[in-house]
User: Fold these one by one.
Assistant:
Number 1:
Amino acid sequence: MWLKRVALCIGLSFLCFAFFTPKASSSVSTIYGPEIISTETINETPVIALDAEENAHIIWIAESDSLNLVYKMVDREGNVIIAETNLTPFTDPQCSHAKRPAMVIDSSGELHIVFHSFSHYTDLGDTEYAAETDLEESEVIYIKLNPNNYLTNIYLGQTNINDLIIIPETIISTNDHVKSRAPNIALNNSDRLHITWFEGNGGEGGTNMTVHYRVMDLNGGEIAPETCLTTTYNIDTGWGEPQVAVDSMGNAHIIFCTDNSNGTDAREIYYTMVSVAENGAVTTLIDETIITTPDDHASVRAQLAIDSQNMVHVIWHDKRLEDADTGSTEIFYSKLNPSLDDQDGDAADRTIISVISEARVSSNNDLGSNQKNIAIDRCDRLHITWSEDDWGDDAALMYTILNTADNIITVVEPEMVIAEDLTEIYPCASYSSSSRNPVIAISETNRVFRAFNGYHNDTGNYSLYLSILCTPCNFQVEFSLTKTSIEENMDTIKFTIELSEPTCQDVIIPIFVEGTARAGSDFFLHLAHPYGYPLELLPAGVFISAGSSSGEITVMPIDDNTVESDETIILTMDADNITNMDADNIINAAPGTNTVFIITIKDDDRKISGSTIFMPFFRPMDSSFPLYPVSSYAPPGLLFSLDYSTGYTPPLLEPYFTLQFLWYINMWDYLSQPWAIYY
């Protein structure tokens, strides 16, 4: 994996980069790909949604005889669960039916998809739609899928398309003579679907282009009717469709790009925030607010994401360096804190809500950085991907991870190449088409799924590629206990090593074993292997399997019947050198509070005053048995024999001392019940 190392010069208004030595290894590892996942000649606009099992659901537009909406499902390792399936099959395919899809997945694993089309398919049968109705202009279409139902019927030998589509094509924008295009969709934590699109018949530089917004339930029922959110600014149809994300309070945050006929000489990025009441009333909290500097340099193709603190993160590509002849088109970033505005419905002051403003996140080199996307993991880190090229064969798909805690940008993983020249295939980097944006989605265990277009130089075709990465957070690791004691004659003691979050891959935590107790003669140290192997001695480290946040250690003392002092086992973890299963990548981790665990093994072979212990009788615990004399004595810790009046001498027995001077002995071949020795 080729890496670029970068150093940051951070200011609230700008972020500069410089190169320095690449680090020896990265915590980013490749699980799958990049591998081609499409079959048609032209494939664009991929979208990924992840379910609770970390399966990836992927949709895109595939072009052969027509433009069809295609669906595929793979597991967390990239294995195909549902093969490439045409969601818009029609008997007469000669049409450009589906464009600009977007998708979310709800808590039950059902998919909600929107796209725009100039026609409407009706009468869904077992394998395809039976009829097509032409529309006056393009409208937004909604469909709902249930992959689980489809999989159930596949197992029964059925593969009907209507097993997958549970709500067929439904027009959700006003069916009028005005174009509705490029929808986007978000799902809040109360299962409301927030959908936005741009509306208007103008093209680039046209007029009366606005952002529209609607809220539905999970069955397509109306919660908030279609509402026009913008009045002043025209939306640019060619340089970025509206984007929507929803915060933890159910408020919708929307960004869009203006055209260049709004009083400025270049395109800029705007932001607005709305809330929806229980009765469906839409209220604007922050009106149209410019978040990029209004200058002569285009800021276009914005994407956004919201973190757990309801901060809004926006990225776009910007031509200010190219226009100034000081560089190329680069990726810029701003962090917004909407709570700093009074949210009275007026426009906000961008200098107040922009807690990080227009910071450059791609290297200023001879290569243009444009098509891009952003996602946020459970640790609120930013995962940013983009295309970089010189309009030739040197195109590459780039990736970085940033942390913006305390409104300071810190590089977690420096800018790196994840996919570059794949023989005659390279990632599409042309900034003239938003259909070629790469997409990125992150699971709860920080598996990163990315899909992108790969251009074939020899054929001119565009194939769809998928890669899966593992990018652990900087988790903390520590022992569940700091110290404990154990009797030498006890069976085992178990304790855990705990991570502050689940790991997305199998990891090994190195452990140093020290102390006065000796492994093999005083104790065994064991752990159940994550792959189901028998208990093994672990001199190197503790295994924690992917998806888990803890690993168990078992200490088994050895009762040696030797009078000795109490002994200690000191376990010290090496949190700085946690590796993946192949030990080829160091995992980012930080030591917690409890990194040393001390176990005291208490000796059970107690000395008793005097050189002998006289034991005149023993008998079974059942008092009906007679007393038998003992003809020998046993110093502590030694084996002894017992003579019976019958003349029978049983096998040698191992004594177990107690503070009550009462020994319980299980006879091997005699009466199979406990015996007591009295003295």
Note: Confidence is low (pLDDT under 50) at residues 1-25, 530-539, 607-679.
Number 2:
Amino acid sequence: MTMHHVGRRSRPLMFGLLVFFVPMWATLVIGSRAASESPEPPKIHVGPRFEARFVAKPRIPVSGIRLAAGGTPQVDPIEANGPIFVEWPKPDLALMFTGEQMGFLEPCGCAGLENQKGGFKRRMTLMKELRGLGWPIIAMDAGGLVRRYGPQAQIKLGRSLEGLVEMGYEAIGFGDKDLRLDMLSEAANLDPNPLLSANVGLVDFDAGFSRRYHVVEENDIKVGMTAVLGEEGLAAAKSMRDLVTLPAEQAIAEVLPELEAAKCDELVLLVYGDVDEAKDLSAKFPKFRWVVAGTGGDEPPIQPEQIAESGATLIEVGHKGMYAVVVGIYEQGSPKYRYQKVPMDHRFEDAPEMKQLLVRYQDQLKTLVTAAGSFEPLTGKPMRLPKQGGGWVGSEACADCHSTACEIFMHSPHAHATTTLVELDPPRHFDPECLSCHVTGWNPQAYAPYVGGYESLEKTPHLTMQGCENCHGPAKNHYDAEMGNIDATDEQIERFRADLRMEIVENEGNMEGQNFKGGKVVQNCMECHDLDNSPDFDFQEYWEREEEPVKHYGMD
């Protein structure tokens, strides 16, 4: 059996960081909705001086994009990432493994949706399609649902667990960063509760908030499973409240007899640790046929490794939820086991159940922000200004003296950055992880505003857009000195100018053989166009391109 899903379309996944192609690919993937189904999004306008001088490049309607594309994605996922389950007969049982989601409920970044992998919406569609074909599935996650701390990470942890439960996961291990949050409160609300760990107990091993092992029978095949937090994560967890811990080896030795007594046909060990640690535990406990390494490489290998010391199969799951690994079991087949790494690409449509989960997630963020009248419930107090500059004035203030540069800016996707978030479905302009590269005056890596940075569409409309000051720095001192709003000496005026000046050095870029360490401009770009969100970013190519240019210099 070959599953290709050719020609499928997808609704938008979360885009948290600004990219140069934002307007084009955002409209490409946003499904159109009738006006009666959703309210008109808030209008975002540039200031009157921008309106008078420049005309922003028009945004192409969604319907026009779809017609131009002929209903076919620009990138063929089968050609890009390969077919899946080629010549697979229906298995007697399928084991699905995931892990190290790292907070990516949906992919977020700059390459265009059709070039990205991941997301709960696609994963649930995969599971629904396989179950629709009659495949019995047992799904297990090795842990690592989040990688940050704070209120937004806590909300994301809860929604991640909610989503996995809705998908029917039988086991979810603990990552150390998961445990730094209030996992106990989340566990108390899970029904059913698939949390699993042999060596970490919430409050106590017998408190009922998680299990030390679990046995599931599907299609007359009994699968026993347990999970452990690896040595590095365990060291971090020992200082945390409301936890009891044991060394992984001791814990496995305690639960393995229980699994053997259950006469399981297949035994699975989930290790939230790297490949070497998973192999070491496998060698000491060779009864487990499947050993999952929850941390490690970016993606699973094409074929799994057989662990020489135990004969077990090592499963690597990659990170950011970009892949799932499926093992097919054929009790009378030859071969008895088949392996497939499944890319979560746009061959899978968006599952409406997971879309609603993401709507609830965004609504939860919006409620906190609007109730407080600020982003402080999610981000804490604003950060100090990144460097001297006196504060933020917005890109329109630059227009009088830098009209050529501003005209280039107004014809670039940077000018539409906030609009992109507002027009997504659901909107993302209450999400700090998205706003940090879509407005002016936020720290893109800390996901938090600077003092005086963007607050809301209503309070700070002049700080919408991915503005000039995000690259050059706060410009209030410079603007006030040039406009005569403050008394400044010639020396001060020149210093204010120098504070904002950026120059490209020879061969500046982020690719191999290019000057990255000495490049102030490219380093600034990669605050947003980082490896998480823009892995294909090539500074020299983007800077020199002819369509939607970003290259600009100084005063008129």
Note: The chain has two domains: 89-355, 385-544.
Number 3:
Amino acid sequence: MKRIIHSIVWLIIALLSYSEANAFIVDHQCTDINKIPTSWLQAARNNLRIGYSHTSHGSQLISGITAFRGSEGSRYYFTRSGRGAEPYVFINDYWANNGAGDLGHRGDLRWVDATETMLNDPDNDRNVVMWSWCGGVSDNNADGIDTYLNAMHQLEQRYPGVTFIYMTGHLDGGGAAGNLHQMNERIRNYCRNHNKILFDFADIESYDPDGAVNFMQLMANDNCDYRSNEYKLNWARDWIAANPSSDLTVTTENCTSCAHSQCLNCILKGRGFWWMMARIAGWEPGEPDPPAPLTKLYYPHVASGDGIWQTEICALNPDNRQTISGVFKAYDNNGQPVSDNLDLNLSPHARQVINIAEQFRNPETIGYIVLECDCENITGFIKFFIDEVCRVAIPAVSQLNSGAVPITHIASDQHWWTGLSLVNTTLSEKILSLYFNNGVMKNVTLVPGEHRAFSIKSLFDNTPQPDINSAIIEGMVGVVGLELFGNGNQLSGILLSDKSSTEIYFPHIADDQQWWTGIVVYNPLNAESVLTISPFTTNGSPLPVQTTTLLPYARYRGTISTLDLAPETAWIKLENASGVSGFELFGTSDNQRLAGYSGVGIGGSNGILANLEKNGWTGIALVNIETTPTTVRLKAYNDSGETIATGSIVLRAYEKKVQIAADFFTTSIAGATYFTYSTDGDKLVAFQLNNSHDNTMLDALPAIR
């Protein structure tokens, strides 16, 4: 089944990219990537899956795009795997190199067999194929080049859903009269005459960014060396020296290597790569930029204006360049606009927190709020609280549910209550079916735009249901929501999400006289599933691994002591082949404070800890989930987006660092309201715990993106 699904996905995406790609040549005139609309870069990332095979010269392109890759969510970010095939990532680097190194010399066609082997794999999802030359054009002849061109054309015929990219060979100092230039011209003419896509490797390294001089004609080689009046010069080093403040010069500082050449050359080729990907995705240079896509961020429950509950919502701009403009729109429980719209304007890294009762008219009429804006990177959270009693914080909703949603934990007895808040974001009526673990089913109908908040016991004539502890909600396509559970002063909650994961992390365990930790892992499938539980100590030492079998719709739940985990357990990784969901709870032994967050999808190379407590303390847990050490870069910001402090820490393999937020920095972060972390591709998991100064209110948030 897995192979069938992969093949279908590959076919759909491949046909899409092939139908949109037109013939073109990418040369030195195609390196101004500021002209590319962000929407087309995103279209390339969404729709293209690249298999790239090369030796050292071809790595220049990868070095270039890596130098300005940025962090996850940024304009030029991409996912990449190493040697061989890995589904779903944007670039499979060294994709077919098990069968051939590069395009070879004089009619060598091993690369053709290697390509066919990879494309014929039932799990293949690549729809763009690139092979680069190394020195194979310099010593080639017309017959050898024609063999290459014919072989590429035949591959295009055999695989009509794949976009094949032709390339020229790197400069060798032979100039306009040299064999390399003649063979490159043969490739260029063929691509022009036969409507092919060409990445003109040689032409890009023939010009500096000003584009005024063709250095190939001055005997330039692959290292950017050329001759002028008998002097040996280097156009890349000279251009950087003459333009020390240029963005290109600054970017070269992030280029750790450029095989056989200068970093400026690699970066120009990396820029040409993104130009080419946007073109393949469908972008036509010179066309007016399309309107920015409308992004909606949902705050699916508001409790405000009754004199007891208060609600705060936060919007945060994680982008380091783009200003985000938008509007907060308030709706009543029937989906009708109420109150006043509130404009949003966030500069890079800025954050806005809104108290509903203070900034919206008639807050008691508001059921939920939607933020509409022009940037898909927007993120945020929602917070409910009763002053000096209880508090809960939950990430805002950026993705609509597309399938069945588990309710992983339900507590409905004489002491505990569980409530759901649901919003139908669609224009159609939704009939939701709640299938509880005791076999009972209840239906809930939502008209278009409707918001409904209700307790579990309200579905049973307000009778507590102690034998119900979980459920599955069918019919949740286009519906968003959250669940809250509480007992007296204890309150917590999580989003209702259809997302599951084969890996779930609980990055902090507190089990002492003051604190307890509870975990819940839920099997959302109608099939048994084996769960592997791997605990670790604070310094990353593995502890004894456990396995357990989860029955359909069953849970693995408890505290450290009840689950028989080692007392040294500081954090836990849980693995499962089919995907599970779950969350973690922290509570105090006096039953006065409670906080929780989801363990699904919290790993990544970067994240945002979105709210630093100003009237109490914020504790942060960072865990390196990789097998090698990593350096973590930290930045603290205020609400205006200004950098308050920077810092870094080194985490050993599987090490956890937990401390008060300010202790991660060597300088004061008193003016900061949130902070970010990032690595060079290594994955971390992180969360924050916020506590009020009087120890009455506690909330938790996972790292958000």
Note: The CA atoms of residues 152 and 164 lie 7 Å apart.
Number 4:
Amino acid sequence: MFKRAFFLAACAAASFAFGDKPDAEYYYPAGIQAGTTRRIVVGGQNLDGVEGGWITGGGVRIKRVVSMPNPPRALGKTQRPWLWDWVKELYAGVKKHHELPPEATSETTDWVVCQWWTYMDLLDPLELSMIWRDSINIFPARQYSPAISRVLIIDVEADADAEPGRRDIILYDDHDVTVPHSFFVSAEPRTREPIYRPPFVPENKIAEEKLPTLEPPCVIDGQIFPGETDVYSIKLEKGQNLVCSVIARELLPFLGDAVPGFFNPVIQLFDPQGNEVGCADDFFYLPDPVMACKVPEDGVYRLEVHDNLYRGRQDFVYIVNCLLMDSEKPAYTPQERAFTCFPPSADQEVPKEDARTVVRTGVVGCPGRVVRHYFKVDRPYSRYKMELFARRQGSPLDGVMKLYGPMGSLPVTAAPLLATWDGSPAKLFDVKNVGSEEQPIIKTNMLYVGSIIQVERDPVGQYLFEAPGRYCVTVEDIGGAGGEDYSYTLAMSPEEPTFEVYGKYSSYLLKPKEDGSNDYEATLQLHVLRLNGFKGAVVLDDTDEVIADSYEIDNIAGTAGLSFKKKDWKGVKCVQLTASAYMPNGKKKTVRVTPTDPAEQAFAYSHMLPQRGFFFCVPEEDVSEDIESRGTPNTDAAASQQPTEAAPGEGMPTKVKKMKKNKKGADHANGQPCSTCHTDKRRR
């Protein structure tokens, strides 16, 4: 009894440590073809109570949510053979229910009870496959991580006229919502890897599920496990220009417990003789590769995808878009691909040119080129801010700025070098000690704009010009690279007080107001960066739909209440917010509030990742299902309700029932089971 009490306490502590906010780390597959239905596996934490969700953009719906129990490993001397025999029956097509044997309630055996083990005859092929892989099979090809230990299966339906492109997917339970994740709708047919099958399944049955030979245009959905290389056959014709674009980092920008802190895929193409004809492991400075090549001959080619370090896990999810183009040039520019991971934040907006601000645009058009920009300073002891916008505009230019002058009649080569800038400092939020007074551990949340923190910061600097005259600023790439895509914008302006505002979370579940008005409300956590000596109060602005409380944020962090006017609104809405403050000169300045979500990278870095807007959500119909609601085992009625994995164009199972909620001890820590999904042998 003591063991069980200790075990339940440990589970509750683990759940408390992770927090109550539902956290969906990955979705697999991360997209759907218009006009089809699909089953999506979701992994994360605190997902037991998820009731439903939304996919933005219209025409795509989440129809059902099934929570998996996270079973323990079936290693008992009597239990594992019993489960093994039942699974073999099910894969042989015998849908027969088995009552638990006497050993299941004996005090002297190591039997463990799990809800889905009790009702395996009600599981569909995907669910049964996951139960086999993760609990009955002794050596599954996976690595355990608490961050992705809870699993859901959601059924998604897309209308035939659903617009292709990127969407946001958000799930909700009865008290909060997940952060938005990328989800894609395509017009092209999509193919996913066959689901995992036990080794005793006959070869002819496995052969029926093998991937067909693909023909572009098409979309591939995949998932990489440790040491794995995914292989696909693709039929091509001589002279075709094939472009294969991989989406991986966009689906999960950071892996908190991996080094490097993200999935870094490599894609290769081999001709029928096994010769490599195409390979890519990045796209300029972006880690998601784009491979473009001209097909040398007719035949069936081999397309391979793997991690560059051969790592892998359930959250190593990817999408490959295979397209035929008119030329060998990639279908994208780096500017079009740059903000797939993180959208632009407010500090990426270029200042407008006026009498005091100089704005210049240019291109480092060839490797090694140095571009020069001249400007005039009229007054002595003028302080200017020099700022280069390159990576913040999606350019691959890793810029360096150099300041020369005063010029007089001298050429740049003879003028004195005054300053060099090749980066800018990170922005810090929430500096706090997460350790103890004796052994402090200082943590900060940092906002990085771009894709790779080592090279993402454009150069920014200030300089006090003591003498008037003509000066020169040069721009070049730090590695000597260049080309037509290496564009930039240079801004030079007097240094003035200013501010930026960031929201700590981007998604909120709205609550009804308590004043009887039937309006909704939410509370935002905001961070203010005061720059160049600005000390004024910042106020969140009202919009057509939102009334902000008149709360002045006069420190680096604070909260702001919002009231929503629409009383009959259900679903999710993306809202852009602004904040205002009065400058020392008496003028009012308004800035866009950047919504962000916190994330960790590779044990070392804390980030606040920009999002595309603030998502405010009002719950809709509960579409969660409990396994026991599917029917009485071992009856014709139960067999008729047996759900199946929906193939493209097929209908979705419609029987739904609200699942049982039990958030206490819902997650697993250190590989331990939880009280929500099963108990020990003392359960009667």
Note: Residues 1-18, 635-684 have pLDDT under 50 and may be disordered.
